Structure formats: C-alpha cells, structure tokens
C-alpha cells in the first residue's frame, strides 16, 4: 500500500469522526439554536417557541435539568416571577441536557408545567445551551424587547437575584 493511500484513508476516517462529533449527521429535533434567533419545540405541547414571536417584550430563558439541584432550588423563584411579572416579561423554561420524561417530571414537581416549557435541540439536547456559552447548569438568558441578547447568567438566581436582574435591566 502506498503512503498516499494510507494517509488518504486516515484523513478520511478523521474527517468522518469530526463531522459526526460536530453534529452534522445528527438530527436537530426540528428546531434551531442560534442564540439570537432560536426556535424550540414545546416539551408538553406541539407549540413552538421562537424569539421572533416575542418581539416587543423582554424574554427570559431559564435552562434547567432534572438532575440539577441548583435548578430545583431556583425554580420556585422563577415561578413566582412569572406569576408576578408575566404580563411584562415573557418567561420560557428550557429543559436541556435531559430526557423528556425527566424534564416533564421536574416541571410538574416544581409547578411550572402550566407555563411555557420548551426543550433544547440537537445532539444531547443542548445546542442552544451551548450557543449561549453554557458550561454548567443552570443558565438564564435575558433578551431585550427588540430581541437583543442582553446577558447570560451562569449559576442559580437565588435570594432575590432574579428580581434584581429584571429590575437592573429595566424589564420591571
């Protein structure tokens, strides 16, 4: 076997591995994960959640997973914020890096299943999470009324930190 053929074969194998790992050959769960133009499927319904549909209203995306204890700790504060400020701010909960059954179970347990709950897309259900720079759970993304990404918070928003952020950004 010639060296050219050997190196060509190795290059082909490496190329296939790189494309496979990058998700080129994977399904997208019928959504898009661009940080400023996302389109996510509903976790409980067939409803779509698109940033463009919320134009004119600030949007808060809260990412959670059933295995995340900090997520569990912060969800009551998010639920309270939706109930208090939901007429001024659009809140969407996003189950990420989780199974549908795990995400649904946690949403029901925390009482957010009656609100807007979406699921992340792509391999491992984490494409939007990654597009927003997520490294650990939870993260929360804040969008201004014109759809501009204002800030991404890493870690739990506890002890009034969520309301402080909503106030600081002028959403409430």
Task: Outline the fold blueprint.
Blueprint: H1 3-21, E1 39-41, E2 48-50, E3 59-64, H2 69-85, E4 90-95, H3 100-110, E5 117-119, H4 127-131, E6 139-143, E7 149-154, H5 161-168
Parallel strand pairs: 3-4, 4-5
Antiparallel strand pairs: 1-2, 3-6, 6-7
Descriptive notes:
- This protein is α/β, with parallel strands linked by helices and 172 residues long.
- It folds into two domains: 1-27; 31-168, 3-Layer(aba) Sandwich (Glutaredoxin).
- 35% of the residues lie in helices and 19% in strands.
- It is built from five helices and seven strands.
- The chain has helices at 3-21, 69-85, 100-110, 127-131, 161-168, and strands at 39-41, 48-50, 59-64, 90-95, 117-119, 139-143, 149-154.
- The chain has a five-stranded mixed β-sheet, covered by helices on one side. A two-stranded antiparallel sheet has the order 1-2.
- Strand 6 (139-143) and strand 7 (149-154) form a beta hairpin.
- The longest helix has 19 residues, at 3-21.
- The chain is globular and about 70 Å long.
- Mean pLDDT is 86; it is low at 11-29.
Helix content: 25-40%
Which segments are poorly predicted (pLDDT under 50) over 5 or more consecutive residues? Answer: 11-29
Q: What's the story with the biggest beta sheet?
A: 5 strands, mixed
CATH class of the largest domain: Alpha Beta
Rg (CA only)? 19 Å
Hey, roughly how much beta strand do the residues contain?
15-25%
Q: Supply the CATH architecture of the largest domain.
A: 3-Layer(aba) Sandwich
Task: Tell me the overall shape.
Answer: globular
Q: For this structure, what is the CATH homologous superfamily of the largest domain?
A: Glutaredoxin
Q: How many strands in all?
A: 7
pLDDT averaged over residues = 86
What is the count of helical runs?
A: 5
* SS-derived structural category: alpha/beta
Kindly report the CATH topology of the largest domain.
Answer: Glutaredoxin
